[in-house]
Design brief:
This protein has 13 helices and 22 strands. By secondary structure, the protein is an alpha+beta fold. The chain folds into 2 domains: 284 residues, Electron Transport, Fmn-binding Protein, Chain A (Pnp Oxidase, Chain A), CATH 2.30.110; 128 residues, UbiD C-terminal domain-like (3-Layer(aba) Sandwich), CATH 3.40.1670.10. Strand 14 and strand 15 form a beta hairpin. The mean pLDDT is 94.
Amino acid sequence: MSLREFIRLAEQAGRLTRVDREVDRHLELAAVAADLDGQAVLFRRVRGYDTPVLVGVCSDRELIARSLGVERRELLAALARALEHPVPPPLVPDAPCQEVVEPRVDLDTIPILTHIPSDGGPYITSGVAIIRDPDLGRNMSFHRLMQIGPNRFAARVVEGRGTATALAKTGGRLDVAICIGVSPAVLLAAAMSPPKGVDELGIAHALRPTPLVRCKTIDLEVPAESEFVLEGRFTGEYAAEGPFIDLTETWDIVRQQPVVEIQCITRRRDPIYHALLPGKSEHKVLMGMPREPTIFAEVSKVAECLDVLITPGGTSWLHAVVQIRKRHEDDGKRAIEAAFRGHGSLKHVVVVDEDVDIHNPADVEWAIATRFQASRDLVVLADQPGSSLDPSARHVPGQKTRTDKMGLDATIPWRDHAGRLRSTEERAEFRRVKYPPSPLL
């Protein structure tokens, strides 16, 4: 499903908002989009541009599920299957993303947004970057890109991940293709963290057909139905990147980051620009939800995992709730340890039983209140590798962020305070008592 097909899907579902009044890409469009957060919004008139701007592609789990051809309740399973069984995408000779080829690059012809007055500059936030690691092959990921010239960006490259690893092998010089206006399947795949050497474009193709085409000026393949493709190269130079708001809705720090120079732009004849609003619903869903299948996969190795949620209250990055069917006494603690392996940036995790609705924060809190004892069920891991997005963590330039992590086993305790193993009947007493159905209804 291309971005255009997604727009038609959203419109048919009554989930697309059109803004017909003219807006400015500098601050105004982002402000309007923030007021409409949680919706897919198409801005049809951007001052000085013929290109419409779409915001909110991945802000609604129900719509994401429909775009993948599954029910919402099947979404985690669909992502987990694609992660486990990627399918090599086909290569096509011609593609919509190359209807127009612009060898003379001027980034100012694209409506790149400035979101907040204190932003370091105009930012591309929805672009997926495709590189080729000399040893591991093709890799796709997100990098926010701050425009620093008519053909240059400062790219935020997180230390220790795929692009940073490849750059270390190549002396900082590496071809890169930045794709804007891609399908939800490509967006989700780019946000996943599969094992090293697994091609994210294969994950995308397993989710939904994703044909590829070769770039015009560099040796890389890109989704054929992209709206824009920026072909370029990491130059080996560094420039200040930031400040910028991130998932935590707090300011990320200014860092010296790699420079990308664009040498060719290919696009559709009438392209649509996808803008991802930093810190808002689409950013949170898109970055958090693709981590759920990796947690699910790791927990499933040690316990019967039923569901996983990266929670909005935990900035859709730092907190998770894991639902298991408890078969052994220590399954809760084993699930906690596995969840941290499944998402390295996870800071706090709560594990609950199958009778707890993990999508209802009050239900999760009830489980903590009625089943958890800190002296018995709390797991604290001090001085662990953490997320650079956490403003309370310990940050040292050039080093991996360090943080303390906590897991809460809020499953039914199988032993009493004297250490005696409770019977099945006694454990059942921890479950909610339900009223019988009303005879009047």
